[in-house]
Fold these 4 entries.
Entry 1:
Amino acid sequence: MRALLQRVTHAQVEVDGEVVGSCERGYLILLGVATTDTEAEANKLWAKVSGLRVFDDEAGKMNLSLKDVDGEVLVVSQFTLYANARRGMRPAFVDAARPEVAVPLYEHFCELAEADVRHVGRGIFGANMQVSLVNDGPVTIWLDTDELSRPGRHH
């Protein structure tokens, strides 16, 4: 599972000119589901997202989590996070889960967020959506559950 996390002061998603989901201070999460993902990946990803300390404390240091700032979330499905553009000029999306797998995992991820966060906005899975946001900082973080599982170097 992949998430492109953007710290925002406001974000919204429209379908056919109508706002279907929004959030104020918090995260816009563009969420991609892989063919091999399960609820375990969604659980791991939400645990990381909810605990990340990327909001400023009183000293201006990124030291506070979403919960610490009573932040909101907007989750938008985005299968193109699994684009494979290694060959040719037209990306392939074979690693992105089909809707019958992706929709329940997207819903599960949103339900995890709703259990922790006061307000969770959603896009509409599979719709042509227009997303707008005010990226705060800007702070944009890429998370991939495959990489969250690997032991890494600490600096």
Entry 2:
Amino acid sequence: MLDRPQRKRAVNLSLDAALVEEAKALGVNLSAAAEAGLREAAREAWRRENAEAMAAWSRWVEENGLPLGEHRQF
């Protein structure tokens, strides 16, 4: 969901003024940079929130193998 292009929404942000000026001077697209940062922050939050479930699934696969693994052709 987070990787799909979505319609844009205007928002107000408060950012360090010196950082904004430096980024602008370097030609950084502030909207794209903010969007990329938010996307990564959301991914990291999802990973933290789901770490226990992912670890449990990995343990289950180690103990039981992949579901339908006997049907794999590779």
Entry 3:
Amino acid sequence: MPKLALANYNKMSSYISAAYRRTVLKRSASICEYCLIHEEDAFFSFEIDHIISEKHNGITHPDNLAHTCFYCNRYKGSDIGSILIPDSEFIRFYNPRTDIWSQHFRLEGALIIPQTKIGEVTVKIFQFNHVDRLIERKLLIELGRYPGIISNA
């Protein structure tokens, strides 16, 4: 295979090496890097997400990978942002590699409240405040296990 074709193949490969997976898991402390739920508290296994999806030329490298819960990864899909109404403005999603969570979101009880347009579009598309996720988050807060907290009790 010619070098250019091989380079493009490697760039677009969805295979994530064990070393990259360990790096992402360690960096995240087993917490969803979007909604902050701990993996031990999730029903479904966590996944590795391409922050900028491969179809948008995102590369498979730790700088473009995030540890995510099933729901955040499914709702995000391969999208990189969405349109906010009424301005019809395209806004990118929160990026756990370059953004600070508390600058875009805050907790109000079990609600995740957006603080910026990036926060607003992320909360909307990732469905952070879907009733099922709110019930789960409320319970985890009461148990002292959210955001991403494992108590020693």
Entry 4:
Amino acid sequence: MLNEFKAFIAKGNVVDLAVGIIIGAAFTAIVNSLVGDLINPIIGLITGGVDFSNLFIDLSGTAPATLAAAKEAGVPVFAYGAFITAVINFLIIAWVVFLLVKAVNKLKDATAKKEAAAAAAAVPAGPTELDLLKDILAALKK
């Protein structure tokens, strides 16, 4: 059973998945910075300074000043701004992953074409059908 587990872990797919998860976790910090530090300020500028992450509806009627104050006081809030920010994060991550997959697929296709061309060039050309028929005809004439 231990050998089967080792074989399972050693398979390329499991290792690739683990590497993907680690890189994805590291990539999350970059995307969060991209959204929080670059995109949200631009969207806020376009929308007149609205900060999506601080948009909320107070469900208790106590009217806290900020979302952080409401959470600290334990006030129930409907934090739709955080949801909008999460959607923006998701869309950016999905777009970047799409671009990465597209680039990798393009690279794979180019590599496969080069390998196919090299394999075709490496295979010696055999006799054609016409050559074989001529040889058979010559043999029959003898």
